[in-house]
Design a protein that fits this description.
Pnp Oxidase, Chain A, UbiD C-terminal domain-like, 2 domains, 9-stranded antiparallel β-sheet, 5-stranded mixed β-sheet, binds flavin mononucleotide
């Protein structure tokens, strides 16, 4: 399934349905697997409830939500999106009869689900698209707006046990810390609807509930229903829900698993969830994906998130014209920004601002800054800027002992690494003592003449 999805994704192909997948014991599962759901930019946008052209505007709305602007400015910004704002104020709706509870099993057996083992060196079956719901200790079980929803992969280790791999800075991990020495209820929705899947994967501001935000994207409120064995509400229209508890201090080694870097992660301890009930639709579908060297499905989603987050970045660093996190560089390890350059040293200021701004950029080990005439989404343009506007001895800034994710085995110390900033902008003022080159371009008239003369002309086949 990994090989098939990988090829179809590279070709921009459709979502996939695998009927009768083979289980580890050789038997065929009754439950089909869906993969490559978000394999194209178009389908990610559709999951956000918009056309690809609407991505920038949704980004503006997200920026307005984050803005630490004075109240007047904020009010003004939000008045531009009255519908979305109204949707954010609505609460989830409670369903009495939930499709996800058509079948309820209080003797859970994860073995009947076709959980994918994605890579040859993987430790075992891995739930790759779970929406993990948690709440803080002391919060009311029916106050779903206070829930956190995150996508954290889950390794199946027994019929009723999974390991939840939330990294320490994630919402789920923060909730777990709040429960201290008490067991913590957890719900995992499999095959949640696209709006909830993407809301859970988006880095939303802490003050925005993912469940409510999914309603904004979907255009209707989130439907929830009380869980059967834990004090929580769960997505009523998911395909499958796992309910259970995390007991204090109970961990197990998670991994190794193939990750988005293109390498296997080493095994690390993460909390174990004891599954107390599994509920599902009568004929559920199981949603899967895999993470691997880009392009993979998360990297397609990441490219859309890049554009959604751009207005937030521009709000804080207004001279940034465009910013691109190339999916091929694991979606965050390299960034290229173009700026409206006005004063000497500006490219370095932008680098430091970016590294210090959003948590995601602390793991960006190479930053290239160009002028606004360079298309930062085009490696040919970037290469030309580097080749003509950059001097390695003058225009490279190297930092040492800065934060890095532990997945980066190339850094000499775990969690600490260097960073490189490359200033590929044209040098101005005291940045250079030499005459700078003059960029060549033909006149618009000449270009128009050529266009008219050659318009529609195809190179004859066999032309040399
Ligand atoms: C397919 C997929 C798999 C992911 N796996 C993990 C994971 O295993 N652990 C993790 O901490 N984040 C993972 N993420 C990223 C988080 O879901 C994402 O950062 C999310 O915004 C976290 O939500 P939170 O800020 O509420 O914790 C994954 C994202 C996707 C799309």
């Amino acid at each position: 399934m990994t090989a098939v999805q990988s090829r179809v994704l590279r070709q921009g192909g459709p979502a996939l349905r695998f009927d009768a997948p083979v289980l580890p014991d050789g038997a065929r599962a009754d439950i089909p697997v869906i993969a490559n759901l978000f394999g194209t930019r178009h389908r990610v946008a559709a999951g956000l409830g918009i056309a690809p052209e609407g991505i920038a505007e949704l980004g503006e709305f997200l920026a307005a939500l984050r803005a630490p602007a004075p109240v007047e400015g904020m009010r003004d910004a939000l008045s531009r999106w009255p519908m979305l704002r109204a949707a954010l104020a609505t609460r989830p709706r409670l369903l009495r009869r939930a499709p996800v509870q058509q079948e309820v099993s209080e003797a859970p057996d994860l073995g009947v689900f076709p959980v994918q083992t994605c890579w040859p060196g993987d430790a075992g079956p891995l739930i790759t698209w779970p929406v993990v719901l948690t709440r803080a200790r002391g919060s009311a079980p029916d106050s779903a707006v206070q829930y956190n929803a995150g996508v954290y992969r889950a390794q199946v280790i027994a019929r009723d046990r999974v390991i939840l791999r939330w990294l320490p800075h994630r919402g789920g991990a923060a909730h777990q810390r709040s429960w201290g020495s008490e067991p913590m209820p957890v719900a995992v929705a499999l095959g949640a609807d696209p709006a909830l899947l993407l809301s859970a994967a988006l880095p939303l501001p802490e003050t925005v509930s993912e469940l409510t935000f999914s309603g904004v994207l979907r255009g209707s409120r989130a439907d929830l229903t009380p869980a059967r064995s834990i004090p929580m509400l769960v997505p009523a229209r998911a395909e499958i829900v796992l309910e259970g508890w995390i007991h204090p201090g109970e961990t197990a080694p998670e991994g190794p698993f193939g990750d988005h870097t293109g390498y296997y992660n080493p095994a690390e301890p993460f909390p174990v969830m004891r599954v107390t009930a599994i509920t599902h639709r009568t004929t559920p579908l199981y949603l899967s994906t895999h993470t691997g060297r880009p392009p993979d499905e998360p990297s397609v989603i990441g490219a859309v998130f890049n554009d959604l987050v751009l207005p937030v970045i521009r709000q804080q660093i207004p001279e940034i014209r465009d910013l691109w996190l190339p999916p091929a560089a694991c979606s965050y390890r390299i960034a290229v920004a173009s700026i409206d350059k006005r004063y000497p040293g500006q490219a370095r200021r932008v680098m430091m601002a970016l590294w210090g701004m959003l948590a995601q950029f602390s793991y960006t080990k190479m930053l290239i800054v160009t002028d606004a005439d360079i298309d930062v989404r085009n490696w040919e343009d970037i290469a030309w800027a580097l080749a003509t506007r950059m001097d390695p001895a003058r225009d490279v800034m190297i930092l040492d002992h800065t934060p890095m994710d532990y997945l980066d085995f190339a850094s000499p110390l775990e969690g600490l690494a260097g960073k490189i900033g490359i200033d590929a902008t044209a040098k101005i003022g005291s940045e250079t003592t030499r005459d700078w080159g003059q960029k060549m371009a033909l006149s618009p008239e000449a270009e128009a003449f050529a266009e008219e003369l050659l318009g529609g002309l195809q190179a004859p086949t066999g032309a040399r």
